[in-house]
Specification:
Elements: H1 2-7, H2 10-20, E1 27-28, E2 33-34, H3 39-54
Antiparallel strand pairs: 1-2
């Protein structure tokens, strides 16, 4: 996707953005990031990070 973005013109980038974020993006100038108004996006990110966290093993296998 990164290569498609880099190689794409404005129309291709718009199509890619709409495919990835069908609900659009809401930017907060005050906070400087995509904010909670992007409910679907935030939920997908939350699930993604939770899945990563679930796969992380801390400690040694035998529990010592």
């Amino acid at each position: 996707m990164v290569l498609a973005w880099k190689k794409g013109g404005i129309n291709e980038r718009k199509e890619l953005q709409e495919a990835l974020f069908p609900d659009g993006l809401a930017w907060s100038y005050e906070k400087g990031f995509l904010n909670h108004r992007n409910e679907r996006l935030m939920q997908e990110w939350r699930e993604f990070f939770e899945s990563l966290q679930a796969s992380v093993n801390v400690g040694v296998p035998d529990g010592i």
